[in-house]
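seq/struct pair 1
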Amino acid sequence: MKTNKFIDVENLQSAFQYDPETGRIWRKLKTGLKETGFSKSNGYLNVKFKKHLYLVHRISWGIYYGTTPEHPIDHINGNPLDNRLCNLRLTTDLTNQYNRKKNRNSKSGIKGVTWHLSGMAWRAQIRINGKKVHLGSFSTKEQAGKAYESAAKKLHGEFYKEQAA
């Protein structure tokens, strides 16, 4: 079942209740409220409503603001289960990529750092407006990581996210 991006806000507001302080969501039943939401393999909370899957953070936004979010919604702290309003912000497809975690297949273990075999050095690179920008070659992966972090702080602005060690 595919997740539905379109949100009929009025229907959702009549079917769900959202607490912006805790990020929790409840389904409104004739017998009262029942907390809802289940996690899928992508780590996000979902709910099923009228034969469609909805992402809880998109429902939460829609219920609170009364409008369908036209853009992606970013979890500021990187935790897709934390749907408190203070942890959600509108973004673009591009800026939403800025605070992604390092690739799980990373051989260096550091975001933006790869081993460059022909140069026999660690290479730091960053994406700016969808294009890779070479930041330099370094003798250690730690130096390359510092170059990436410095560039990310400067270029990604409010979407910069310090990488865990």
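seq/struct pair 2
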Amino acid sequence: MKHRKAALAAAAVSIGMLAAPSAVAAKTDARACTAAHDSAVTLRTGKHLREARQQLALCAAASCSTDVRKECARLSADVDAAIPTIIFTARDASGHDVKAVEVDMDGQALADSLDGSALEVDPGVHVFTFTADSWAPVTLKLDIGAGEKRRAEPVTMTKVLREVVVAPPPPAEVHPPPPSSPPAKTDTVGIITGGLGFAGFAGMILGGVYGMLAITSRDQQKADCSSTTQCGSHSAALTDHSTALSDGTVSTVAFIAGGVFLAGAAGYYFGVGGSSPSSGTTGVLIAPTVLRGGSGLALQGGF
């Protein structure tokens, strides 16, 4: 009898130990169901309908109590009716469809292509971005109301103009200028030098002629009046004397002018022409000389 009571007591303890985990699990499920319900209500109030529907699916599970399941099922139907849907169609400027378009909503991925299906979104103002290879991105800002279903929104895509990079032409080769050579004598130098030389020679010749005339007039004066006491023709002697002085003056001026012209020719030739007196035989020599009955200049030169 005692053994029977002990066995019954041990069985009761074992049954109690097995039943305890089930009770704890049931209590945990009840709390999770209530938490999912409360979260769904908060999300619905904040217009996050898609997340609210996920929480309602949790509290509508069979593990939740009957009352919780019924409430979550009712709220789930209301949320489904309030979730708006939108259909985007992307086309180019010619009206051709562009399928491979990725869509982001508020910076989060919404769809990886457009195939005409309705996309579920939350109500409110959202920014949609459409991107595709070889197409310029398009941004739309839309205000979507709760309960809008299959709202149609066309999107026009524009091809990206690829930038053509033109390589710059190679730099032009810069060649140094050829070394400059000293300027050669030109015909102008020869003409000017020759002109000055000719004028100098003419002056010298003219001076020589008038010098000879002056000497002749002086000799004639002496013939007219050999002395102050013997003067056969006093008036002729005065005329010869005056002529001699005039011819002598002209001779002197002509000699001086000729010398100046010759010196100028030599200076211009050696200075502008680039020659030096020692580099060649070209030159001018003016030297004094003694003529019969007087003096003068002797000129020798070569060009």
